[in-house]
Amino acid sequence: MFLLYEYDIFWAFLIISSAIPVLAFFISGVLSPIRKGPEKLSSYESGIEPIGDAWLQFRIRYYMFALVFVVFDVETVFLYPWAMSFDVLGVSAFIEAFIFVLILILGLVYAWRKGALEWS
Fold first, then answer.
1. 120 falls within a domain
2. How far apart are CA 1 and CA 72, in angstroms?
């Protein structure tokens, strides 16, 4: 039989953890001073008055470099559980991990040939 009282602690935790950020935003909105002047609305960079437009276009290479880094960084996290249980898993797990690393290397070679790893 499904008993709801077993989940009381879950619901209490869910309500409290949802109420704390809402209350924090509400209290900061009520207590914060609202003074909008030219000093407040200007952009500030190292104490120097900015010159020109704030909207600059960046080259796509910076984003591609970051994306390739994140992809390979996240993929290496998947190798950690395999490495911790390598002696228990056997030869089939070794072959699967070898194929996984081979796919990563092929992706790295592809990104390298396309120029996604060049900074300038």
1. no
2. 47
Residue 70: both structure tokens together: 């994140």
Rounded CA-CA distance 72/101 in Å is 10
| 16: containing domain | 3-112
Contact 94, 83 (CB under 8 A): no
Domain membership flag for residue 99: yes
Asked whether residue 17 is domain-assigned, the answer is yes
Question: Which two tokens mark 40?
Answer: 């407040």
How far apart CA 64 and CA 118 sit, in angstroms, is: 10
- Would you say the pTM of this structure is higher than 0.70? no
Q: Please report, for the domain that includes residue 40, its CATH number.
A: 1.20.58.1610
CA angle (64, 70, 75) in 5-degree steps: 130
54-78 tens-digit pLDDT: 677 777 777 877 888 888 788 878 8
The per-residue DSSP string of 73-98 comes to: HHHHHTHHHHHHTHHHH-HHHHHHHH
Structurally, the chain folds into a number of domains equal to 1
Q: Which two tokens stand for residue 64?
A: 């591609």
